[in-house]
Amino acid sequence: MNSQIDHSIVLTVEGIGFWAGGLPDWDAARAFVIDGTLPVGAAAKPAPQLLAPNERRRAPDSVALALEVAQAACTMAGRDPSTLASVFASTHGDLAITDYICDTLAGAPETMSPTRFHNSVHNAAAGYWTIGTGCMAATTAISAYDCSFAQGLLEAGAQSRDAAAPVLLVAYDSESRGAMGTISPSRGLLAAALVLNANVDGRDTTDGARMLRLSLQTDAAQRSDGALHARYAGNAMSPMLPLFEALANARATSIALRSSSRQSLRVDVSGADR
Known about the structure:
Blueprint: E1 9-20, H1 26-35, H2 53-58, H3 61-77, E2 85-89, H4 95-107, H5 114-118, H6 124-133, E3 139-142, H7 148-163, E4 167-173, H8 178-183, E5 190-198, E6 210-217, H9 227-232, H10 241-249, E7 253-258, E8 264-270
C-alpha cells in the first residue's frame, strides 16, 4: 500500500502577459522563442492604459511594467481584474528609485521628491494595480532575491488552491542604477503575468488548456539556454524565463526553478495554448 501523499498543486493557465525590451506582448515573445522573430518598431517602455495619462507619466518603470502584463493576462483570461487576488513578485522593487533616494539623502535631503519617495516601497505596483482596477481582493508582495519568481508562483498556486478561485501572479524587475546597480545588478525591463486557477481535485484537464503541476524537490534548479534567457539574462527576474520558454514551445516538459538554498520548485508543463 502506497502511503505517500501528493502535495503537488495543479493549475490551469488561463491568461499570460509578457513584456521585455523588443517583445511588447506574449504573442511577440512566443514568435521569438519559436523562430527568432522580433517585431518592428516595438515601444521602448510599456504604457499601461489602466492609468490615467498624468499617472502614466509619473509612474516608474517598475509600476508600468507590472500593470502592463497584469492587464494583458487578465484580458486573455477573460477575468475581471477587480475580482482577483494577486501576488506581485519582484527581486528588487525599483532600485533606480532606491539609488536616487540614497544619493539624495547623502547629498541634498531637502530636495527629496515626494513622488519618488511614494513610489519607493516594494508594494508600489500592487498598490497602483488595486487602485486602478478598484480591486478589494487580497494582494501580496514578495521578494526572495533570485528565488522571487518561484516563491511567487508557489504562493499564487497555494492561494488559488486554498480559495478554489483564480489568482493573478505578476513578476517584474527594472534596471538598477548607480551604486545600487553595482551591488544588485539588473539590466533592462522584464515582466510577465499569469492568471492561475487551481484544479482542486489534482487531475489534469483534457480541454487543451496549459497546465502546471507544482511540487518542491531537492534537485538543483536548471540553467536555461533558451532564446529568452540569452536575450534577457541580465535582468533580475530572468529566473522565470525557463517557464515562459516552456509555455511558448507548447510541449510537455518539466523544469526546476530555484526556490530556496536547499530546494527547487518543479514545474511540470502540459497541454497546449488556448
